Amino acid sequence: MILALLWATWHLPAFFFRDTYVELGALGFVMFAVMLIFVTMTFTWLYNSTGGSVWMAIVFHAFFNWLSVSEAGGQFVAPLMSVPIVVWAFFIPRRYGTENCSPLPKQTV
Questions:
Q1: Residue 28: Cβ within 10 Å count
Q2: What distance lies between CA 107 and its chain's CA centroid?
Q3: Which of 2, 27, 57, 95 has its C-alpha lying 20 to 30 A from 44's C-alpha?
């Protein structure tokens, strides 16, 4: 939850200048912040499941942004990509537990 809050704060300025974010408005930011809870769980799983590979998290984030935020993906791609992330975020603690969120031990830097 702390990481999701920090991540939402990091993205807040984009809601004032980036067209795709500005169109979402204040309610869009709230929805974005809630979505970040699920995305953070998925990124934690990805990071821990790849032995602490920040590179895989960067590639996933770049791919997601390229399709969902840019004009490359169109208007329906972001919701379509978000559904599996939310479903996976619910599955992760049930499958792997809340301690590591992955089949591998927790990665520390």
A1: 14
A2: 18
A3: 27
